[in-house]
Structures are given as C-alpha cells and as structure tokens.
Amino acid sequence: MRPTRTAHDPTTDGHPDRGDHEHSRDSHGDHEDHGGHAGHGDHAEMFRRRFWWSVLLTLPVVATSHMVMDWLGYTLDFTGIDLIGPVLGSVLFFWAGWPFLEGGWSEARTRQPGMMLLIAMAISVAYLASLATSLDLFDLEFWWELAALITIMLLGHWQEMKAIGQASSALQALAELLPDDAERIGADGEVETIGIGDLEAGDVALVRSGARVPADGEIIDGAAEIDESMVTGESRPVAKEQGDRVVAGTIATDSAIRVRVDAVGDDTALAGIQRMVAAAQESKGRAQALADRAAALLFYVAASAGVVTFLSWLAFGNTDDAVVRTVTVLVIACPHALGLAIPLVVSLSSAMAARNGILVKDRIALERMRDIDAVLFDKTGTLTKGEHIVTDAAAADGTTLDDVHRLAGAVEADSEHPLARAIVTAARERGDIARAEDFRSITGRGVEATIDGISHAVGGPSLLRQRDLDIPESLRGRVDDWTGRGAAVLHLVRNDDIIGSFALEDEIRPEARQAVDALHGRGIQVVMITGDARQVADAVGAELGIDEVMSEVLPEDKDHKVAELQARGLRVAMVGDGVNDAPALARADVGLAIGAGTDVAIESAGVVLASSDPRSVLAVIRLSKASYRKMTQNLVWAAGYNVLAIPLAAGALAWAGIVLAPAVGAILMSASTIVVALNAQLLRRLDLRPS
Questions:
Q1: Dihedral of the CA atoms 375, 379, 380, 382 (nearest 10)?
Q2: Interatomic CA distance for residues 297 and 8, integer angstroms
Q3: DSSP annotation of 137
Q4: Which residue among 13, 227, 292, 378 is the active-site one?
Q5: Within its chain, how far is the Cα of 437 from the centroid?
Q6: Which CA distances in Å does 43 have to 70, 99, 161, 455?
Q7: pLDDT of 138-164, one tens digit each?
Q8: Catalytic residue at 180?
C-alpha cells in the first residue's frame, strides 16, 4: 500500500473546493495553484468560516443537552427541545463535517488511509450513535459530543492551515519584491510608465532612487548603491556602475540608473529563486519519509485499537461505553501533529534560508550538512575574489616607494590588462599618478610610456630577458620571496634600470579566514582545491590556516579528489562556482554552488549560496542542525503523544475513574498539533546572518 497522505498536505484533505482527483497524487504535493501555497490561505479562510458557524450551531446543542444540564445544575424545557440535537447535529455533521467526510472517502478510495479517514470514521460513529439514541435504540446522550467534536476539529484545521500559510508566505514575499510598473525609455528618450508584464528584453528601464529594479539587466548609464539583501542576504548595499549587472527586485538606494533589460518574467534570477524555494518546500527528506511511514502505521494502529476497544467494552456488556471509547480512540489518534511535524519545519526553514541568500534545492542535501566532516573549497572565486591586487611593492636604492607607485600607475593607466588595473588602483590609493605620453604595448612583455621625457616600462620576467636586465640586489630578496609564494611579479624599468617591483596576488576574501576558523571551531576539516601552481595554493592555504591543499588539479580531476576524501571516510561538502566544479559538486555528499557562478555549477548543487561569502556555509550548517533538531523534537512529541494517548482514550485507566470524553480527546489532539506548530515557529529565532 502506498504511504498515507498526512496532515501536512492539507490542500488534499478533502476540502469541498478541490476535486477528488487531487487525492490520487503523491504525498506532499504536486499542488496545482501557484505551487500549492496560495491554497493554504484559501483553506484557512474556509475552515475559519465553518468554525465560527459551527460554534453558533454547537452552543444550543450543548445548552439543551440533558447531560450538560445535570452537570451544571440548570433546567431548560420548551416545545421541540429534543429536536435541537438531531436537527443541528445533522447540519453540523453534513455541512461542517463535510471536509472530513470528503477527505476520508478520498483516502479510502485511493487506499491512502490517514488523518482524514480517522476523523471521518470518528464523527460518523458519533453521528450514527447519536441518531440511534434519538430513535431510542441506544441510551446515549451524544449529540453535544458530536457537535463539540466537529467544532474542535475545525478549529484545529483552521490553525494548521494558518500556520502552514504563514510558513509558505516566502513565495508571496518574493513575488512582492517586483514593482507593479516599470518606467521604459523610448527611442526618442521619452519615459513611459508600463505594466511590469509589458517589459521586454532589450528595453531600457529607468530606475529612480529608492525604486526597485523591474527586471534583470545591465546598467548602461549611471551608478548607484544597490540593496541586494532580498536576493543575496547581504545587508550592505553594493556599489554598481555602468557595465555591472542588476537583478529584478533589488533597490537603487541613492541614485537613478538606466538598465538595459536582458531577462524578464520566468527568466529572471528572482523567478529562479521562487522556483527553488517552491521545490524545496515541497521536496521530501529522510525525516519526511519517516513521518509518512509513521502516519501510515498510526492509522492501522488506531483502527485496530478502535476495534479492540469496541469489542472489549462490548464484552463487558456496556454498549454505550464501547461507542464512546471507540470514538475517543479514533479522535485522539488522528495524526495531525505527526503530519505537521516535518512540513511546517520544511516550509519555515526554506523561507528563512531564501531570505538569507541560501537557496535549498534538495532537502536531502540540507539534512546531510549537519553531518559533514570536511568542506572542500574551490579557491578562485570562492576563497579568493578571482581579481589580482598589489599585495606588496619595493623600491630600489635611490627611489622612493611613492615614486614607484606614481610612475608605474602612469605607465599602466591606459592598459586594460587586469594586472595593470591593479597597479593603477594601488597607485591612486597612495595619491596622484604622473602624466604619461606615447603609451604603447610591448606584445607579450608589458607596456611602455614616456614620463617627463624619460622612457619607463612595466613588465614581468620576459621584459627583463628581452632587455637583458638583472634584478638589483636591493630588490632581489623581496622578489625571491614573492616568487616563492607564487605571486605574479612586475617590474618598473626606467631606461635600462629596474627601479621598483610589485607583487600581485589573487585577493583573498576578507570573510574567508572567519569561515575557516568557524569551521575548525566545529571540528570540520577545511580543504582547498585549485588548478593553480603549488606555491600559489600553499600561500593561500597558509594565509587562511587550511588543513589540506590540493593544487595543480586539472578540471576533470576535481571529482576524483572528492572521491579520495570520501574514500577516507569523510562526508564531504564541496563549494564551487565554475563549470569545472560541476562534476565535483555532483559527487560530493553536499554540493554548494556560489550563486554568482555558472548555471552548470548551480544545476549540479543541492544548495545555492546567492552571495559569494564563504561564511554562508556556516549558515547552512546551522540551519541544517536546527531544522533537523526541530523535526526530531516534533516527531518524538507527535509519536510519543499517540503512544500514551491511545491506551488512555481506550479506557485503560477506567478502573481508576480516569476516562476521556471524545470532545476532551479532540482538545488534546488539537493541543498536540499546536505544540508542534509552536515548536516549529521557534526556528524563526535562528540567526543565519554571517558573523
């Protein structure tokens, strides 16, 4: 038999506004209306309305019950009083209880017995017993119990729908990041306001200060600080200028920009995030599979317990108690809490992760992160920025370091080479650069220019070999140190004299050391893998305190290195961003793709980090441990509750005068559900911000 559908997928629980065909789908969900999340709010409203109407109908049924009047010591007597229970009770059963009856029938018809079938059985037995009493076949005052039972069940379902709807609001929140309108700049320069759906790739949009970017694109005019927190989780605005990309939903905080649109609608990064969040909220993990099996088992346990209870009490010759105890067993065993234990945590954790720039594609991957022994980082673009900076500089005897920067910056000012831009940036940070003339490139060797009538050149070892120049003794020691750690070395040459040298290295992300230290604090090994030369890799590894460095690794061999770590008995998480990382990401126990990376890397990973901050790995581990802890707590509570409650409901302590009325059983069942929901909500207190 297929696993039961449990309460966590309430969109399939037989609500009157859904077709029966929905019940034939697999558990957890292939929801049809906007990923299934819009339906939660609709169902919550439906249950809310039915609950309050049920309250109004239940009050007269309870008030006119002879049993209740005896308990409270009052008397009501008027014509037709004996019809209130049967009439209003029937209305309650067939109208207020209809969602449960329909859901129970669907579960029975599709052979997926679960919560709704248990509820349907309980209220059906209660209704038939009440009806038999009204026909003088039983001596059992039960209409008020039936009314109270249905009302409390509706309350429990309303609160459950509301809780899941709140947890699933992440998708709606993401959708609301997009503005309703966009300002498009026409060919004549006129600005027109259009609906967001009318924006097309190739259009130029004006984004004013404080406005949201309507679609993905490239800045073609202007510069602004862009608030990307809703996409990357990064709290500080990021400076963007002409040529930089911006994504839909982010905010230009301080200035207007013009953006050439290249992706709209479902092609935007925001839409991709929505799809990933929806998939994560609906995907199953190992804990969910366990909950499914437990809920399926619980139905058979409850049904068997109900039969045994009925026959046992009947054997003692007490038909009334047999009916009451059986109804109570069926009610109290409803796996509300068990059905809600996992999916509510899944929805909450997925929403929290998305708000913090962590996009969970695979629930299994998130669950595995709590057991990771080693994190394997790709170096370039992950631990480093993939951009060279000047890390050191030296001046030959007779020259000042300021002059070396000023002159080298002038020579490189017109070059587009990344190393040239690094030297110019370093020079400008120290002050003004000189004015150069007659700039020319020396193919394969460097660049040359004239400053104050004197020829100056900047280049590497090939330039020195071409000109047959030797590094002066005053620079040799420093240059040897730089070369030994794998830095790129450029020299400033005046006529035929080397007057200064620069060390340029891939800039290490400032957050990388914090990430490595924090992982070490958790007892997790940190390994770095790169295709760079051994000296370069070892220098970065030493700088960050990395446990093991794998250098000069060919792209096609990265996944073999992951397999080697796994062969040592390590559970490995791989963090990378390039095409050549994709096989390793797929082979690792958990693949984490840096969001700025390629589509191939992202598709191969189980978790996508929207920002390039390596500390996000710690946030994934914290989320994994916290969410699994909540799942476990909820499962233990929900399962343990039923283990203890079913014997009590069956009357195991009746000899001691301890018995439960069906309505009390319904209250306890609802209370268990509320405990599980509140416990899951505590997950919101988890801080996932990098620290």
A1: 30
A2: 16
A3: S
A4: 378
A5: 55
A6: 38, 10, 7, 79
A7: 666 678 777 877 887 787 667 666 655
A8: no
Q: Tokens 């008020």 identify what position?
A: 144
Dump pLDDT digits (tens) for 260-286.
Answer: 998 888 777 777 666 655 554 455 555
Q: Which CA distances in Å does 458 have to 395, 414, 474, 475, 499? A: 14, 12, 18, 15, 10
Contact 586, 560 (CB under 8 A): no
For the four alpha carbons of 110, 112, 115 and 117, in that order, the dihedral sign comes to positive
- Give the residue from 84, 42, 28 showing the smallest Cα distance to 61: 84
Q: Give, for 192, the enclosing helix (H) or strand (E).
A: strand 191-195
Distance between CA atoms of residues 73 and 170, nearest Å: 52
Nearest CA to 364 out of 590, 170, 582 is that of: 590
Burial 575-591 (b: 16+ CB within 10 A, else e): bbbbebbbbbbbbbbbb
Length of the chain measured in residues: 691
pLDDT at 671 exceeding the cut of 80:
no
Which DSSP category does 2 fall into? P
Q: How many CB atoms lie within 10 A of CB 188?
A: 5
The pLDDT confidence band at residue 338, using thresholds 50, 70 and 90, is low
Token pair of 263 as six digits = 């992706």
Sheet holding 590-594, edge to edge: 358-360, 607-609, 590-594, 572-576, 374-378, 525-529, 548-550
In whole angstroms, how far apart are CA 108 and each of 151, 390, 623?
A: 23, 71, 38
For residue 368, the one-letter residue type is R
CB contact set of 39 (below 8 Å; sequence gap of 6+): 11, 18, 31, 33
Helices 81-91 and 115-134 cross at an angle (nearest 10°) of 160
Question: Using CA atoms, how far apart are residues 244 and 588, in angstroms rounded to an integer?
Answer: 32
Continuous H helices in 392-511: 401-412, 418-430, 461-467, 473-484
Q: Both tokens of residue 381?
A: 């673009």
Q: Which residue has the tokens 């809490």?
A: 337
Cβ neighbours for 128, distance < 8 A, ≥ 6 positions apart: none
- In this prediction, residue 377 carries a pLDDT of 92
CA-nearest of 671, 6, 104, 55 to 660 is 671
